[in-house]
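Re: the 469-residue chain
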Amino acid sequence: MAIKKGQVVELTIDSAAFKGKGIGKIDDLAVFVKNTAPGDRVKTRIIKRKKSYLEGKLLEVLEPGPNRIQPTCRHAQACGGCSWQHVNYQSQLSFKQDQVREHMHRIGGLTELEVKPTLGCENILHYRNKMEYSIGHKRWLSREEINADKFISDKCFAAGLHAPGRFDKILNIRECYLQDPISYQILDFVRRYCINHDIAPFNRIDHEGFMRNVMIRNAHHTDDLMVNLVTYKDEPETISKITDALLQEFPAITTVMNNVNDTKSPTAVGRYENIIFGPGHITDYIGEYYFKIQANTFFQTNTAQAEHLYNIARDFADIKSGETVYDLYCGVGTLSLYLSEKAKKVVGIEVVDAAVKNAVQNAKENEVKNVEFVKGDMKDVFYEDIIHTFGAPDCLITDPPRAGMHPDVVQRLNELKVPKLVYISCNTSTMARDLKELSNVYDIQELQPVDMFPQTYHIEAVAKLRLRK
C-alpha cells in the first residue's frame, strides 16, 4: 500500500544521512527523519512524499538505538545550532567519515579512495569563538506553549537562534553550549535590558524596531572578549547606555562594537560600524601567528581545531626550502602565514577587498616578509600575469567556499600541472565534484576528514594530491 502524506508509521533508522537526518526504509523507499540516530525505532509522521524518497517528522522514539544519548542542552531538538547532540561523539565521527566516503564514491566516482577516520575535537562543547544571535519580534512557540492556551508575555521579543529552516522565527534560547558560557549570559542580559527599557526588537516584516543581533567573539589564547550589537538605527545614546550596563555586569568585555544595518538585508554585518568601547578588535593566535580580529573579519570559528587542520595541510604540502606556494581563496591570510616558514614565497589570492587588506596587515604585524597578497576573483586572475609576476607554484593550496571551485579554476589547475596540490573543503559534496575532474591529472593520495563543528553534521576535509607521472 502506498504511503501517504500525513500518515503515521513506525520504522527503524538504519544510517545517518547528510545534514544530520536519519534514514529508514518503508517498502524499499528511503525515509529521512530529523533528530534520529541509527538503531532508533521511531514513530514518524510523513510530511513530504517524492518519487524516490519520503520525509518524516519524529513523533516518538519507541526504542533508542545504541548511538543515542541524552542531549546536554534543553533546546537540542528544536534549535538550528546543533543537529547531532543526541548522538554520542564517537558515532558522530564515524557518521562524518561515512558521509565523506559516500560523497567521494557517489559524486566523485572515486571508489578506490580511502577516507581516513575523522580527526575528532578535544572540546566537543564550548568550542566556538564566535556566536551570532538573532533578535526579532516573533519568537518560536513550542507545541507545549501553544497547547497550554495561556498568555505569553514575551512572545513579541525573541533572542536566540533560528528554528531549523525557519528564518522568520527565532527560538528564544535559555542556554547554549557551543561557545563559552559567558556568551549566553551576555545575550540573556541584553534581552532582559531591552525588555525592561522598552527597546524594540527588529521587525523583519515591517522593517521597524531597533535591536537586530548580538554577536559575541572570544579569543582562545588571550582573554579578549568582543560584544557586537547590531542595530537597525544609529542611536548613540541608547547604545551607550546598554554598553555601560554590559561593562558593569561583565567587566571581562574588552571591546564593544555597534554595527548599523539600516537595510532590509538579514545580515549581521552593518552598512557601517562604530567603536563604542575598547580597541574595536580582539587578538588571538593560530600557532605562533598573531591576528587582530574585527567584528566582521573571517576567522576560523574553532581556533584549537584550526591548528590541527592547518598542521594536516602543512604536512600534505610538504613544503621544501626554496619552493613557491600559492594559497587560493586565502581570506585574511591565516593559512598563508602558517605555511610561510619553510617556503621561499607564499602568494595568497582572495576576492574580498577587506580580507586582502586584513591579510596584508596580518603579515606586517607578524613580520612575515615572504608573503604577497593579490585581490581578484580566482577565475579571472589566476592566469599567466600572476605566474609571470610571482613565478610558477611548486605547491598550491586551495580552500574554496562551500560552492567549490569555479570550473575555469579547476581546468586551470589541470593545465598548470602543479607538482603538489592540497585541497581543503567545508563541503565535501562540491569537493568530490572538483576532485573528480582533478583526478584526470592528479593522484589523490590521502583524504583526511576533520571535525571542526562537534554536535553538527558539518565536516571539513583535506586532500593530498600529487601530479601524475
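The chain has a mean pLDDT of 92.
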